[in-house]
């Protein structure tokens, strides 16, 4: 909690200092000191005290402290003054180093570090003071050094002899006096007070405020100060400054690396004025550098640093990178920041820290952003690779894939057959493209949103996909993909889809491969031990189910059976069923579909081995199964031996103005009950077959889509129950099954109490429920969603992250009404939101039993579910 009493405290006594009082760096240094790390002695001046300095001046607000610090400074001691804003990212004033050198104190410093280094330090103080306190132009001092280097005939500043520095010191004093019309201050108190004043005032100037605000700082953001003893990286014995890291940025594997400048002070390394040395000999060998590494220059320093890293990890539960200075062979820490890391590295580091006992397993789970797990699940473009971005769209399905551009599903299949990777580029995809999508390595659509066909299927298949790439143009006539900068690409040209970032990239940038073992696996197992909600998968095919199983799911929460009918060898039978004129013809076609459906379901049940499998009865409007192009209609007419006009007429009769609101879902089941009859039979026969073979007994869950009236559900249930009874009698087996309803319409949510009375479960289809609650087409929203989100109309795409206020309220209301009439009711969610961490948190808090999401999002959901439970 923020201490509102203006105060200052010894850094080594401030172990529990907080950021709001002493700033991020101040609080961190205090913690490092607390666990015994070598941090130079110092004092922290609180944010409120600095504000007082800004108002009253350093003498008035802080005079006693300044005198005490200056009085205690040994004759050869120097001070550093650093700003410590509450967040380092807000920026802040440059540190002023080497405070305390005066003409009178110079001899003691010469004694300590020799005449050349002492003069250099004095020069640096005058330059730093001139620039940061008196507002002089840094060029003035840089020019002096530049000219001196030329005059002395050496290759750089580091080679300047002692006399040259002595001369530079005199030049700096003259420049200071000429510019400020005052001699350089000759007392430690005056230097320190002026520096404190300058830092406090600078922070409160209007331009500093504006700059900070641009970095996200609040209007009243404050700054604390750190007054510290200087450790001298400049001297005649082993000394210098550097930055050391201890884990590999990409993998998180322990690895020591960094930079070091002999005879230098911290900012020199950051500014990169001189070419730094590497830290370890191994690193040097890898980089093919001849200059010695720190390890070789100052034996023991790297081992010491590694030991300090270990100590900081155990004491503070973080893998830090260090900013360090070496003075006479002794290592000191000037700062420590959590090392930069990729998402993969973050997992490895969190798991390693928990294994060491530095943090708890819960902490490790909380430290990893669930969405970032996609980096483990799919190949990604190497973050260090150059990218030539052609266009952007929605990041519809994560991962990256490189391949040759194809413009049709047939070409994708052909290329796949030759063992080559294809990137399927379409304006939008439709169910007919599914086979092509199966053969593609990645998919790009110019239109479409997060729940468009391409997006949903790609996520299911784990295919990298970018949809709604509106700044790309598809010139279908000339078969060209035109980039936003006008470059055009033909079929066969190589591109890369980055579905993680929503970008289409030219050529084949370097990739990093998926990684599902090691630390990832460990973290997942920890997450499973704490999470309080089941994670199931939306799996339509045996291949999906296998993938889901590989990700350790708790079952299948949604099997969209229609996807079983898009197979090459099935689609025409399906079409015959749809085109049938009479009920008898329809039943004949359905009889042929039955074994196909049953075989798939047998496989699903076998793969899931007794885990719950929820199978949804047919949902889409029938016209989706019919051919769209004239050519395909001809082919179908030939195959069915009917005139093409008959097919055209039937397709026309099925056309609807609003197909998503038309004859689909349970409305098909009510008006063409034979379809659901066939599906129910396939499910029960499959269960009977599997239960005969396996010990783990299948309890199929049958789900009715798009219900809005209880009577619809009752009618379907009556027929399903009858078919179950028939199959049991025919096969002389006993089967247990559960019947449930999808809540996808606002009316179903309102009437959930009725629906629950005779349902074993309610599963919220939040894709349709969002569409219908907003009155917003899920297939068209992508065209303007980015504008809406950018303008803040919606905080987020509601098809992506559940609209807690609106759709969420329907979910809460329906779940309460449902459980009121049926206390044993199972509640689940199976829309795309089932893989979204914020939506999973909502479902956990609302007491749902499961969420169900695309197989490749299962690990993300497992981690998010654990975080929601902790
Ligand atoms: C839904 O609407 O949320 C759902 C799961 O069904 P579909 O996406 O197949 O319409
Ligand atoms: Mg739906």
Description:
GO terms for molecular function: ATP binding; kinase activity; metal ion binding; pyruvate, phosphate dikinase activity. It holds the Pfam family PEP-utilizers_C. The chain has 870 residues and is an alpha/beta fold. It folds into four domains: 8-229, Acyl-CoA Binding Protein; 240-341, 2-Layer Sandwich (D-amino Acid Aminotransferase, Chain A, domain 1), CATH 3.30.470.20; 380-512, 3-Layer(bba) Sandwich (Glucose Oxidase, domain 1), CATH 3.50.30; 531-621 and 656-869, Phosphoenolpyruvate-binding domains (TIM Barrel). Helices cover 46% and strands 17% of the residues. The protein has 35 helices and 31 strands. The strands form six sheets. Strands 12-22-21-14-15-16-17-13 form an eight-stranded mixed beta sheet. An eight-stranded parallel barrel has the order 24-25-26-27-28-29-30-31, surrounded by eight helices. Strands 1-2-5-3-4 form a five-stranded antiparallel beta sheet. The longest helix has 26 residues, at 583-608. The model has no long low-confidence stretch (mean pLDDT 93). Bound molecules: phosphoenolpyruvate (PEP) and magnesium ion (MG). Phosphoenolpyruvate binds at residues 558, 560, 619, 744, 765-768, 830-831.
């Amino acid at each position: 909690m923020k201490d509102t009493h203006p105060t200052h405290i010894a850094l080594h006594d401030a172990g529990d200092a907080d950021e709001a009082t002493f700033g991020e760096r101040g609080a961190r240094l205090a913690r490092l000191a607390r666990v015994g790390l070598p941090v130079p002695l110092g004092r922290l001046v609180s944010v409120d005290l600095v504000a007082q300095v800004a108002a009253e001046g350093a003498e008035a607000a802080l005079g006693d402290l300044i005198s005490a610090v200056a009085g205690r400074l040994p004759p050869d001691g120097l001070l550093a003054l650093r700003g410590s804003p509450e967040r380092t990212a807000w920026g802040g004033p440059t540190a002023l180093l080497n405070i305390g050198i005066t003409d009178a104190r110079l001899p003691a410093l010469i004694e300590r570090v020799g005449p050349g280094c002492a003069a250099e330090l004095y020069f640096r103080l005058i330059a730093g003071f001139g620039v940061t306190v008196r507002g002089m132009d840094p060029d003035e001092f840089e020019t002096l050094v530049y000219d001196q280097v030329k005059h002395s005939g050496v290759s750089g500043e580091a080679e300047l002899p002692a006399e040259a520095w002595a001369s530079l010191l005199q030049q700096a004093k003259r420049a200071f006096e000429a510019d400020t019309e005052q001699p350089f201050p000759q007392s430690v108190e005056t230097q320190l007070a002026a520096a404190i004043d300058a830092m406090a005032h600078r922070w409160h100037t209007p331009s500093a405020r504006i700059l900070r605000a641009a970095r996200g700082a609040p209007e009243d953001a404050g700054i604390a100060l750190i007054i510290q003893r200087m450790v001298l990286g400049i001297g005649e014995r082993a000394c210098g400054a550097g930055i050391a890291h201890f884990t590999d940025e990409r993998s998180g594997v322990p690895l020591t690396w960094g930079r070091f400048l002999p005879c230098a002070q911290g900012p020199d390394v950051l500014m990169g004025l001189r070419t730094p040395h590497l830290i370890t000999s191994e690193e040097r060998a890898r980089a093919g550098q001849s200059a010695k590494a720190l390890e070789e220059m100052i034996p023991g320093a790297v081992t010491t640093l590694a030991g300090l890293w270990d100590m900081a990890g155990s004491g503070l539960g973080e893998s830090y990178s260090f900013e360090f200075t070496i003075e006479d062979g002794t290592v000191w820490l000037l700062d420590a920041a959590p090392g930069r890391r990729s998402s993969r590295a973050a997992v490895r580091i969190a798991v390693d820290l928990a294994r060491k006992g530095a943090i708890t397993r819960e902490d490790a789970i909380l430290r990893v952003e669930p969405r970032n797990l996609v980096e483990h699940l799919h190949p990604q473009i190497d973050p260090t690779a150059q990218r030539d971005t052609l266009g952007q769209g929605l990041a519809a399905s994560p991962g990256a894939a490189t391949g040759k551009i194809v413009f049709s599903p047939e070409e994708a299949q052909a290329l796949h057959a030759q063992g080559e990777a294809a990137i399927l580029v379409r304006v939008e995809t439709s169910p007919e493209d599914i086979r092509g999508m199966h053969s593609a390595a990645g998919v790009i659509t110019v239109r479409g949103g997060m729940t468009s066909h391409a997006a949903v299927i790609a996520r299911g298949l784990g295919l990298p996909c970018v949809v709604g790439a509106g700044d790309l143009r598809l010139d279908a006539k000339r078969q060209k993909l035109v980039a936003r900068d006008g470059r055009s690409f033909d079929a066969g040209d190589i591109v890369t889809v980055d579905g993680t970032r929503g970008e289409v990239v030219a050529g084949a940038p370097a990739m990093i491969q998926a990684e599902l073992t090691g630390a990832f696996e460990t973290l997942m197992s920890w997450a499973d031990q704490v999470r309080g909600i089941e994670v199931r998968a939306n799996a339509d095919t045996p291949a999906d189910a296998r993938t889901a199983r590989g990700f350790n799911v708790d079952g299948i929460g949604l099997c969209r059976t229609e996807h079983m009918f898009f197979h090459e060898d099935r689609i025409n039978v399906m079409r015959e069923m749809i085109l049938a004129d009479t009920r008898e013809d329809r039943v004949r076609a359905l009889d042929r579909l039955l074994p196909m459906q049953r075989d798939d379901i047998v496989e699903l049940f076998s793969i899931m081995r007794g885990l719950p499998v929820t199978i949804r009865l047919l949902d889409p409007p029938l016209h989706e199964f019919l051919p769209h192009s004239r050519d395909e209609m001809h082919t179908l007419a030939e195959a069915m031996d009917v005139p093409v006009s008959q097919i055209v007429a039937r397709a026309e009769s099925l056309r609807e103005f609003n197909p998503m609101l038309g004859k689909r879902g349970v409305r098909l089941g009510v008006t063409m009950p034979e379809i659901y009859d066939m599906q129910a039979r396939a499910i029960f026969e499959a269960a009977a077959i599997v239960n005969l073979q396996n010990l783990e007994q299948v309890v199929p869950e049958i789900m009715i889509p798009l219900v809005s009236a209880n009577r619809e559900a009752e009618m379907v249930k009556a027929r399903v129950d009858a078919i179950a009874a028939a199959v049991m009698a025919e096969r002389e087996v006993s089967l247990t099954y559960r019947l449930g309803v999808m809540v996808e319409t606002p009316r179903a949510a309102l009437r959930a109490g009725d629906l629950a009375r005779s349902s074993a479960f309610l599963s919220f289809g939040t894709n349709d429920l969002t569409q219908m609650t907003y009155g917003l087409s899920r297939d068209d929203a992508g065209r303007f969603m980015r504008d809406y989100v950018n303008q803040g109309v919606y905080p987020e795409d509601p098809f992506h992250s559940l609209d807690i206020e609106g759709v969420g309220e329907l979910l809460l209301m329906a779940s309460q009404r449902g459980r009121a009439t049926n206390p044993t009711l199972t509640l689940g969610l199976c829309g795309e939101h089932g893989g979204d961490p914020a939506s999973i948190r909502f479902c956990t808090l609302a007491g749902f039993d499961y969420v169900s999401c695309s197989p490749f999002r299962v690990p993300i959901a497992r981690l998010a579910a654990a975080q929601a439970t902790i």
